[in-house]
Amino acid sequence: MVGNIGLGDKVNRSKDILGRVYEYFLSQFASAEGKKGGQFYTPRCVVRVLVEMLAPYKGRVYDPCCGSGGMFVQSVEFVKAHATGNGNGGKTKADVSIFGQESNHTTWRLAKMNLAIRHHNHILTPGRYVGAAEVEDDGEPFEEKMARLTTALREQTGKAEKLDRIIWANLEDVGYGG
CA 168 to CA 142: how far, in whole Å? Predict the structure, then answer.
């Protein structure tokens, strides 16, 4: 529905007007609500400085407390701003993968919307680990637990890659793959 709204000429549409309006309302909402329950809004200028320091030219951008997703938006903007001279004729390609989580379900939905209106691919988890209640020590030594969990993660990643190959092969079979 929102994607079909004409927002000026091509130059103005490329300036992400809808995203800027969205960020404006987020900041106004954050100012009005204050800092309830440990929730904070980090101003765009602060996030931009952090992103400039991190310099995410490519790879994964992970934010364990992603809030409304500003770090992700700024990371993609950083890549686009530095895309000249990359041998692709000035066509920008945000070569970053976006991963994050947020404990507040409402804020998580805001982040999803923030990224969706900008057409950024992302994986955001709603509070799976952030903000989880503390559990008592289970008696398993930390090093053993980490070894077990990283082995399980490696196995799951391998299975996911295998499934991805199958999915893409199936899509190619019906004319929609690579």
Answer: 38
Q: How far is CA 128 from CA 1, 59, 177, in A?
A: 30, 23, 32
Question: At which residue do the structure tokens 């364990």 appear?
Answer: 64
pLDDT tens column, 35-87: 554 566 677 888 888 898 888 877 788 888 888 888 888 888 888 787 765 55
CA dihedral 83, 45, 33, 132 (to 10 degrees): 60
Order of strands, edge to edge, in the sheet holding 59-63?
A: 59-63, 96-102, 123-126
Where does the pLDDT of residue 130 fall: very low under 50, low under 70, confident under 90, or very high at 90 and above?
very low
pTM value? Answer: 0.52
